[in-house]
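(Structure overview)
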Amino acid sequence: MALDLSQERTIKITDQEFKELVTFVYNRYGIDLSRKRQLIEGRLSHTLRAKGLNSFSQYMKILFNDTNGEELHLFLNKITTNHSYFGRENEHFDFLMKVALPQLEKTRRGDLRIWSAGCSAGQEAYNIAMVMDQYFGPRKPQWDTTILATDISTNVLTKAKQGIYSADTIKGLPPQWKTKYFNRLPDGNYQVCERIRKEVVFRIFNLMDPFVYKKPFDIIFCRNVMIYFDAETTNRTVEKFYDATSNGGYLFIGHSESVDKAKSRYTYLMPAIYQRQQNKGGL
């Protein structure tokens, strides 16, 4: 007989515990949990019970003193929602294919710097790699379009490296892409072909940390990540992205997110797409 976890007692978090946890997560990761009290209790109660703990204070003592990062990563996997699929907000990929890449090809020499920030389980990064392959075609060997894909969750990065997805996850792709870029597995799932998997490098990275890079990026995707941030953190992160964007480079964000046009140095092109213009100087 299966155990119905929904019947287990929810461990309540006190006002003081909630304040301390929210402050800790905000300062460290920029994630605003101030309206997520019920989510925290719901998603972490089982974790506390599994550790034999009776209060969030006991759990937070373990969390705040985590030296190897293992407990912090487990915590992040619990409180963040990593939902993505191929073809999500597909107009971005259309713009990339029809506008951004033709422009960048004219001004770049064999090297495009691409970053998928908050890549979740890898669908976005692989989707970008497929667009690159489609656009450049036989010219692809002349170009380095390696994609840096980062996330704070080790759990989703492990899945991303495997590149295995359900049939439902890839239904938004053109039928010919499914044949060209995926191998069907015996269990009915699909795995991204090795050639495309080699185009993506996955790394763990916290957007609250300083951005360190050899050269600025021509294309940055950071979609549906900043929905967890408050306005101040969003503005600060967008400006860090701007400094990391090459002249003429592009930033793609989620349609549920927005850039403060009065404060940002990016030029607005269309919903959720921004550009660092050539005449604004810098990197």
Notes: Confidence is low (pLDDT under 50) at residues 1-7. The CA atoms of residues 29 and 208 lie 6 Å apart. The chain is about 40% helix and 15% strand.
